[in-house]
Amino acid sequence: MRHPILLAIVASLPCLFAGAIMAQVGGPGRDAPRLKGPEPFTREIPAPPMQRQITDDVRRRRNYPDQPPLIPHAIEGYALDLNANKCLSCHSRKFTEQSQAPMISVTHYQDRDGNFLGGVSPRRYACLSCHVPQTGAPPLVENIFTDMDTLAEPDRRSR
Questions:
Q1: Greatest alpha-carbon span in the chain
Q2: Residues 53, 74: contact at Cβ < 8 Å?
Q3: CA–CA separation, 144 and 101 (whole Å)
Q4: Going along 26-67, which residue ranges are E strands?
Q5: DSSP codes joined into one string, 84-153
Q6: CB of 119 closer than 8 Å to CB of 109
Q7: CA-based end-to-end distance of the chain
């Protein structure tokens, strides 16, 4: 055998063609849910209205360790670009005493190697990458999440 790789490729071609044909005619997974939109798909429909943000300034309990806190106040109109970050005017350690806002985590002042920086790490500067405002929007799918405290509760009762 002079070309074992070529032989392996030629031997696998029937499997590749069979898989492609099954995908076309509907093999396993045919009942997968389909995305739906307007009919015809080229018709433009208006965007749904934006949901109102919950702005009661109540800090929400986190569902799991290291979950980024939700934003409990209005942020509409906040500047967040290369030149300005409105969030830091209250939440940076420099301003928390006067604003009484919670200070951002010390991890936001570390680089990816764990070294402490004099200011907020560039990779943590875009607050809205992780932190989001809470809205009253109805869920799109059923939420079956169970937090750790609830999962651990039966263990506590049995002792």
A1: 79
A2: yes
A3: 32
A4: none
A5: -BTTHHHHSTTTHHHH-PPPPPGGGGB-TTS-B-SS--GGG--GGGT--B-B-PPPSS------HHHHHH
A6: yes
A7: 68
How far apart (Å, rounded) are the C-alpha atoms in residues 69 and 60? 7
Both tokens assigned to 24: 């076309």
Residue that has been written with the tokens 């190697």 in this structure = 113
Say what the pLDDT of residue 155 is: 62
Tokens of 107: 């991890």
Which residue bears the tokens 């059923």? 142
Distances (CA, A) of 123 to 30, 83, 95, 129: 42, 15, 21, 10
- Residue partners of 79: CB distance under 8 A and separation at least 6: 85, 86
How does pLDDT run across 16-33, given as a tens digit for each residue?
666 666 665 555 555 666
At residue 40, the pLDDT reads 82
Tens of pLDDT, residue by residue over 50-77, are 888 888 988 888 878 888 999 999 898 9
Residue 148: closest CA among 60, 65, 61: 65
Amino acid at 19: G
Note the pTM of the prediction, 2 decimals.
0.61
